[in-house]
Each structure stands twice: as C-alpha cells, then as structure tokens.
Design goal:
Elements lengths: L2 H14 L4 H21 L8 H12 L14 H13 L5 H10 L3 H19 L2
Length: 127
C-alpha cells in the first residue's frame, strides 16, 4: 500500500470499527457503494479491507437487529450488513444467512438476506 492510500483506509477502518453503530453502518454502506463503482472505475479502493468488512457485517447479523434510534431506523444495521454480504458473502456464511431468513419478520431484511444467501451459494458452487 502506498502512503497516499493509507490515510483513506485508516479513516475507513476507524469508521468500520467505531463504537457508534451509525458510523459502522455508514462504513458498510460506503464499502458497498465503492464495490458498485468497480464496474465503471475498474477497482474498489476499499477492497484491501474486504475481509474486515465481511467480519464486521457477520458480527452485526449474528446479533438481533438494532431498535430504532436517533441515528438509525429499526433494523438498519442488519440491512447495511446484509447489503455488504450481497457482495462479500462466502459459502461458510450460508448458515448464518439461513438463520436470518428463518428468524426475521422484516420484508426488507428478508429480501437482502436472500440476495446475500444467493451470493454464498454461487460461490459454493462456482456458478
């Protein structure tokens, strides 16, 4: 990593590992936007942190969704995490995603979890 890349990745890492759930959700959303730009820009500048992003997303999905608060609406943490997993999910995430699909009553969370589960399945089968 060259020195010009270090500061943005450090700043992103600080958001990603913040104690403030709203900041963590913003970081997850930033990653997903950067990943979407890959199609037009040729690369995701946050890609070096993909494993960390996936682990943070898994940690969020592994606990109950957040209640509505001043910073985020109810379940926004799960939506942010699952949205990232639509790109980053791996085969070993399938069980966690199945649990979300089974336990949620939120239609948005179910829809995004289904997309993330599809990603995990595609990677497992090489499709």
């Amino acid at each position: 990593m060259n020195p010009d890349e270090a500061i943005p990745l450090q700043a992103f890492g600080a958001l990603l590992h913040s104690q403030n759930l709203g900041m963590v959700c913003r970081a997850l959303n930033m990653y997903q936007v950067a990943a979407a730009y890959t199609q037009v820009s040729g690369g995701n500048p946050l890609e070096p942190m993909a494993d960390e992003v996936r682990q943070v997303a898994r940690g969020i999905v592994d606990r109950p969704p957040a209640d509505a608060g001043a910073e985020v609406p109810a379940g926004f943490d799960h939506l942010s995490a699952l949205n990232v997993l639509t790109t980053l999910a791996e085969p070993e995430d399938a069980e966690l995603l199945a649990e979300v699909l089974e336990s949620t009553s939120n239609d948005q969370i179910r829809a995004v979890a289904s997309l993330a589960a599809d990603t995990a399945r595609r990677k497992a089968t090489g499709a």
